[in-house]
Write a sequence for this structure.
């Protein structure tokens, strides 16, 4: 059974940084691209970033381009999202998901950007 | 403004059928990219209902079905039940944006 567990969220001041992690199990992590998706409070889902299995092709949504960096560690079945210059509008739950979208997501980790 | 367009809200009585539409364009659904559907109850993570237009993960009742035509997709829920009251999102890939795109979500109310 596929499991994705996100962590690393918390309260951070505007302009601050945070690093999110997603640990995968139940499938061969190194064979799949991965995504980050977020959801602001009371709002819809927004794709944030994706990375291929070999870390060659990272892609970003316009709202986070230049501020967020996606990376992965295939040896430890882990996906990361390094977020810098955080803004209040980055507040929300962050989920990781497999790139083929055929498996359940994790439960998410909450990021709150506030002074 | 979401790339994929869904009706903001729908309602139906128990036992009835509800169909939620998801309209895209030639760079996403119309380009042949898969469409997924998610159900989200307030306070919970999204739950995968349908992947690749019409496939159900194990554990999803066959009351839920998906279809596609040209640049749109639909989620049909038959025999509506109170527990189906939730937000529903469609999702695909957009080649112009080089990333995933979501519909704005449809809040389904079971009367």
């Amino acid at each position: 059974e596929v499991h994705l567990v996100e962590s690393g969220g918390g309260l951070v001041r505007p302009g601050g940084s945070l690093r999110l992690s997603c640990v995968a199990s139940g499938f061969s992590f190194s064979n799949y691209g991965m995504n980050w998706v977020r959801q602001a409070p009371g709002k819809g889902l927004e794709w944030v970033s994706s990375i291929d299995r070999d870390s060659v092709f990272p892609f970003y949504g316009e709202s986070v381009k230049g501020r967020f960096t996606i990376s992965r560690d295939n040896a430890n079945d882990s996906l990361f999202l390094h977020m810098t210059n955080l803004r209040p509008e980055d507040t929300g739950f962050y989920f990781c998901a497999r790139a083929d979208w055929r498996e359940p997501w994790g439960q998410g980790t909450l990021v709150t950007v506030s002074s | 403004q979401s790339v994929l367009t869904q009706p903001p809200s729908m309602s139906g009585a128990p036992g009835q059928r509800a169909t939620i539409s998801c309209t895209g364009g030639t760079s996403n659904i119309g380009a042949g990219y898969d469409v997924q559907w998610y159900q989200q109850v307030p306070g919970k993570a999204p739950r995968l209902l349908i992947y690749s237009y019409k496939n159900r993960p194990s554990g999803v009742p066959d009351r839920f079905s998906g279809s596609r035509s040209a640049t749109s997709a639909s989620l049909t829920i038959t025999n509506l039940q109170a527990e189906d009251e939730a937000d529903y999102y469609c999702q695909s890939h957009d080649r112009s944006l080089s990333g995933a795109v979501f519909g704005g979500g449809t809040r389904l109310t079971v009367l």
